[in-house]
Specification:
about 240 residues, alpha+beta, Cyclophilin
């Protein structure tokens, strides 16, 4: 397999309409669905104390995308700091409008760079400490991307296949796609491949500087997240 790296260094005007979201799937629900009056989570000015808030033991996020919806179940015992961070991001609506900017066939779909340059700047200095990998980077699992030890911020990826070799380099899985992997995630546009100069995809530093304007102008086929919301929570 090509030795890809997962490193750091999002709405096309003519994009396809998303499929109608599926109703919540059945399961053992210990906590009720999240209400509309949930506490607001700052986005452009993340509060340090809020960033330290512990997530539920487990929760689901519904991602509605330009390809349709998929659901992710996050487990805090797989990656405590990773789960806390993705919980904050989803509650803050961080992923709305974010593009899948690096999609490599049979490898990963990477996303999590904000299309708002002010938001990007605000999150550059919010890295979290590493978690020890507990679960393997196999098909359908999610982990944060990183540029080195203790550099996880907002970027993450979905594994298209068995990337268990990433376990040895510290990429701690925090969740898994539980609905929509085959029909939605596998269909995310991957024509651009890696970022330049290795492929025809966007440059991450320019996404940070120019935001969605750069992506819409130069990479109109990129798929993107419309909304990402916490839908269920579980407590032991």
């Amino acid at each position: 397999m090509t030795n890809h790296r997962l490193v750091h260094a999002s709405r096309p005007p003519d994009a396809k309409r998303p499929s109608r979201a599926h109703r919540a799937f059945a399961g053992l629900v210990i906590a009720a669905a999240i209400g509309a009056c949930a506490t607001r989570y700052p986005l452009a000015k993340p509060e340090p104390t809020r960033l330290e808030t512990q997530s539920p033991d487990s929760f689901t996020i519904r991602f509605v995308t330009s390809r349709g919806p998929f659901d992710v179940r996050v487990h805090r015992d797989w990656s405590p700091r990773g789960a806390d961070r993705v919980y904050y991001l989803a509650r803050a609506k961080f992923f709305d409008g974010v593009r899948f900017f690096r999609v490599v066939d049979k490898f990963v779909a990477q996303f999590g760079l904000s299309g708002d340059t002010a938001v990007s700047r605000a999150w550059r200095s919010t890295s979290i400490q590493d978690d020890v990998p507990v679960k393997s980077n196999v098909r359908g699992t999610l982990s944060f991307a990183a540029g080195g030890p203790n550099t996880r911020t907002t970027q993450m990826y979905i594994n298209f296949g068995d990337n268990s070799r990433l376990d040895r380099t510290g990429f701690a899985v925090f969740g898994q796609v539980i609905a929509g992997m085959d029909a939605v995630v596998d269909s995310i546009h991957h024509g651009y491949g890696e970022g330049a100069p290795r492929g025809q995809g966007p440059m991450q530093d320019r996404i940070g500087r120019e935001g969605n304007a750069y992506l819409i102008r130069g990479f109109p086929k990129l798929d993107y997240v419309i909304t990402a919301r916490v839908t269920k929570e579980w407590k032991r």
